[in-house]
């Protein structure tokens, strides 16, 4: 006996109707539409935050919470002052210099711990202890040792970020799939090809995660050191206006600094991450 398949004119033996997969609405959303939807949702969340900020400022003193209009006006005034760019660049320079130290030292330590059982047992306790020490301690020690200068800030940033890089690289090396390396050898890959095509792609995600986390720590310790004892940088400006209890300028500098961080994230880090992981298939939800 044969039956007609639901509205298609097709029949099947035994009266069994085949299951026809139905496309879900989420499956019909193209990557471009999904990307634009993400942009609109982020913009909507930002507008909601500004709206809440504006309403709250109506009920609080300007000394406690100035409104968005006053803060944006102060930001515009600051952008017209060349010293603003000097302080922003000074902080960025210190963070970049400290991160170079952190990445160089963290990579070496992480590789040693990941490749050598002796290195792992010899260093793991010290790396974990260094990771748990509050970053402000490194800032205070650096100022006491090196004085009120750029070296103190750079050393504090580097020492704070080294454990984060080392731990991620350590775990990344230990997570390498050795079966892929054996397969590469079976197909007579050269050592450089195995390293470039099989090892590095597996470690890259761990390195990127390490850089993001370490960079977040670096921005924080940079502003702390500048606030404690230096006479330049975003942290210094925050401390200066805090001393005058000028909340408008404190928020203006905070937002300016946040904008710089977002520019670095979306102009430098995101494209770099996309390029380094371009071999990975995109995950569609």
Total domains, how many?
1
What share of residues is helical? over 70%
Rg, Cα atoms, Å = 27 Å
Going across the major beta sheet, what is the strand order? 1-2
Oligomeric status: single chain
CATH fold description: MetI-like fold
- How many helices? The count is 10
State the secondary-structure class.
mainly alpha
Q: What is the string of helix and strand elements? A: EEHHHHHHHHHH
Mean pLDDT: 80
Strand residue percentage = under 5%
Per CATH, which architecture? Orthogonal Bundle
Transmembrane segments: 39-60, 92-114, 126-146, 152-173, 194-215, 221-243, 250-269
Membrane topology: Multi-pass membrane protein
InterPro entries: MetI-like (IPR000515), MetI-like_sf (IPR035906)
Keywords: Cell membrane, Membrane, Transmembrane, Transmembrane helix, Transport
């Amino acid at each position: 006996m044969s039956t007609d398949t639901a509205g298609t004119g097709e029949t099947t033996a035994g009266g069994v109707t085949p299951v026809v997969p139905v496309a879900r609405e989420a499956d019909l959303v193209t990557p471009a539409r999904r990307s634009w939807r993400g942009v609109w949702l982020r913009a909507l969340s930002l507008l909601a935050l500004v709206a809440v900020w504006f309403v709250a400022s109506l009920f609080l003193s300007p000394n406690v919470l100035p409104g968005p209009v006053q803060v944006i006006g102060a930001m515009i005034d600051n952008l017209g002052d060349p010293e603003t760019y000097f302080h922003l660049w000074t902080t960025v320079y210190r963070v970049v210099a400290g991160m170079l130290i952190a990445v160089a030292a963290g990579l070496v330590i992480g590789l040693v711990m990941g490749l050598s059982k002796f290195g792992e047992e010899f260093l793991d306790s010290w790396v974990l202890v260094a990771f748990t020490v509050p970053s402000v301690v490194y800032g205070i020690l650096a100022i006491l040792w090196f004085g009120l200068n750029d070296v103190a800030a750079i050393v504090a940033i580097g020492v704070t970020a080294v454990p984060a890089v080392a731990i991620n690289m350590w775990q990344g090396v230990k997570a390498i799939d050795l079966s892929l390396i054996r397969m590469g050898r079976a197909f007579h890959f050269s050592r450089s090809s195995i390293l470039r095509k099989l090892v590095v792609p597996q470690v890259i995600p761990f390195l990127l995660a390490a850089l993001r986390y370490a960079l977040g720590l670096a921005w924080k310790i940079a502003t702390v050191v500048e606030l404690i004892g230096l006479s330049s940088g975003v942290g210094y400006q925050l401390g200066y206006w805090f001393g005058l209890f000028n909340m408008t300028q404190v928020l203006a500098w905070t937002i300016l600094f946040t904008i710089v961080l977002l520019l670095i994230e979306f102009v430098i880090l995101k494209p770099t991450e996309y390029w380094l992981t371009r071999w990975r298939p995109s995950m569609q939800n």
